[in-house]
C-alpha cells in the first residue's frame, strides 16, 4: 500500500542537530541541520 505524503511527514522522527545532537524544534521536512545554539556559534 502506498502511503500518503502527509502520513509520511507525520511519521518522520524528530530532527537532531548534526553538531550537538539536540532535538531541533522545527518542521521535520525543513533543510536545516543545526540547532539555534550551534548556529549562533556559542
Automatic annotation (TrEMBL):
Record-given protein name: YhfH family protein
Superkingdom of origin: Bacteria
InterPro entries attached to this UniProt entry: YhfH-like (IPR025432)
Amino acid at each position: 500500500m502506498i502511503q500518503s505524503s502527509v502520513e509520511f511527514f507525520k511519521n518522520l522522527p524528530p530532527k537532531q542537530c548534526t553538531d550537538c545532537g539536540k532535538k531541533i524544534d522545527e518542521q521535520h521536512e525543513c533543510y536545516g541541520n543545526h540547532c539555534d545554539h550551534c548556529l549562533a556559534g556559542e
